[in-house]
């Protein structure tokens, strides 16, 4: 079976007239009448006095309450690339940010990017962590060894993880691009070799580690994530359904309280055959263009939960990149769709830390914007989930939601899947 690079779920890498006045009618002169008798005033009567109230019981005047000004309807980052980031407008990020400005933006949340590895970027200064390298095959790793503590990206595809992380969390600092959650912490976990391929066991172990679960031979992750972004699919296995190893890892990290978000992949096929896109409990995201329609490359099907901007050739997703021409890139693909959902999910977890993964996934799908004409594709078989990700509506729903259940003992949350 001909295979494409798994990790790069990017289809393109580089680049009333006035009313009439009323008519006045004179009143008729009343007829003359006999003189009326002169009215005499009624004798005055004493009026009862109001009871005297002691001074010390007079209520004090009510304090004057000055209402707080309402939050702005929208918020626009000052970053120079932001006006060209059509994807943020598509998912209604300005309206979401405006609501967060009045609530302190919520708590910072950690998002793990399981991808090509760590690339230092000024967009995430002080919030980016080099996690762990889980590529076990030294020949494919390209760094001279197998698994180790250095998660640095290697090879021409190394920028892939950088772009994903920037989409999720780039600072709003007047430089470069604007990220979805500028307070997010990003942990880069390397699971792809320099060839862009992903071994299923490497992926399963990387997922467990990212969520703070123990993995033999690796130190405990000091920064466990609430959201795992997987803009990839596993190689070296048939595309006939979710791999058992990856399903077990999804179940484990979900029980730990982490949401797994995956790109649907770029083969224009049913996503059900792919791992993790076809796995139970995963929030699978496919791509739509600026017009809200599925590009030909984007996978589809019942395993897809919703869609987000992934762009198309010539109109991709703009992002900062230290290695890109002029410091930017405009790739397209479901790789770029997934981090939109991951970024918004991190905002919801920050607002409501006790939400379960299933509750966050439910908020995202329940508040999605319907596709133009009610479908993402003229072919009724090629469905794209609940609709287009709507950050503004999701944040509003989270802010209006009642308190969530408390965490269960041990710091984990009650498990629950998307499907």
TrEMBL record:
Signal peptide: 1-20
Protein name as annotated: S8 family serine peptidase
Family assignment from sequence similarity: Belongs to the peptidase S8 family.
The UniProt record lists the keyword Hydrolase: yes
Ranges of residues in domain Peptidase S8/S53: 108-370
Record lineage: Bacteria, Thermotogati, Deinococcota, Deinococci, Deinococcales
Pfam family, one: Peptidase_S8
Compositional bias of kind Pro residues: 60-74
Disordered: region residues: 21-78, 316-337, 399-419
Alphabetical keyword list: Hydrolase, Protease, Serine protease, Signal
Species this protein is from: Deinococcus rhizophilus
Domain of life where this protein originates: Bacteria
InterPro entries for this protein: Peptidase_S8/S53_dom, Peptidase_S8/S53_dom_sf, Peptidase_S8_Ser-AS, Peptidase_S8_subtilisin-like, Peptidase_S8_subtilisin-rel
Keyword presence, Cell inner membrane: no
Active site: 115, 160, 335
């Amino acid at each position: 079976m001909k295979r494409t690079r798994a990790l790069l779920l990017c289809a393109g890498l580089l680049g009333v007239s006035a009313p009439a006045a009323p008519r006045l009618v004179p009143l008729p002169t009343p007829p003359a009448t006999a003189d009326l008798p002169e009215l005499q005033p009624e004798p005055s009567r004493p009026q009862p006095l109001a009871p005297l109230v002691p001074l010390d019981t007079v209520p004090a005047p009510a304090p004057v309450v000055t209402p707080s000004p309402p939050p702005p309807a929208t918020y626009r980052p000052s970053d120079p690339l932001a006006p060209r980031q059509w994807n943020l407008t598509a998912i209604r990020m300005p309206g979401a940010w405006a609501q967060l400005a009045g609530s302190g933006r919520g708590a910072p949340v950690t998002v793990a990017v399981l991808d090509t590895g760590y690339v230092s970027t000024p967009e995430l200064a002080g919030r980016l962590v080099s996690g762990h390298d889980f590529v076990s095959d030294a020949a494919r790793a390209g760094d001279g060894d197998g698994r180790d503590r250095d998660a640095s990206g290697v090879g021409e595809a190394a920028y892939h993880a950088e772009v994903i992380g920037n989409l999720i969390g780039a600072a709003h600092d007047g430089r470069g691009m604007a990220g979805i959650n500028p307070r997010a912490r990003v942990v880069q976990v390397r699971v792809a070799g320099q060839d862009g391929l992903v071994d299923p066991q490497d992926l399963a172990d990387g997922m467990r580690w990212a969520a703070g679960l123990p993995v033999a031979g690796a130190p405990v992750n000091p920064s466990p994530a609430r959201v795992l972004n997987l803009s990839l699919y596993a190689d070296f296995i048939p595309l006939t359904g979710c791999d058992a190893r990856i399903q077990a890892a999804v179940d484990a990290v979900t029980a730990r309280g982490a949401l797994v978000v995956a790109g649907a992949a770029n083969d224009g096929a049913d996503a059900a055959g792919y791992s993790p896109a076809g796995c139970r409990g995963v929030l699978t995201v496919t791509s739509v263009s600026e017009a809200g329609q599925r590009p030909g490359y984007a996978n589809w099907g019942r395993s897809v939960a919703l869609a987000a901007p992934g762009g198309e050739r010539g109109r991709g997703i703009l992002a900062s990149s230290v290695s890109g021409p002029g410091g930017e890139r405009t790739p397209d693909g479901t790789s770029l769709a997934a981090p939109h959902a991951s970024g918004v999910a991190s905002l919801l977890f920050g607002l409501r830390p006790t939400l379960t993964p299933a509750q966050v996934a439910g908020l995202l799908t329940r508040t999605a914007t319907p596709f133009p004409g009610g479908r993402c594709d003229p072919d009724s078989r090629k469905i794209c989930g609940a609709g287009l990700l709507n950050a503004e509506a999701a944040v509003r729903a989270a802010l209006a939601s009642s308190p969530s259940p408390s965490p269960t003992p041990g710091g984990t949350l009650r498990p629950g899947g998307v499907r």
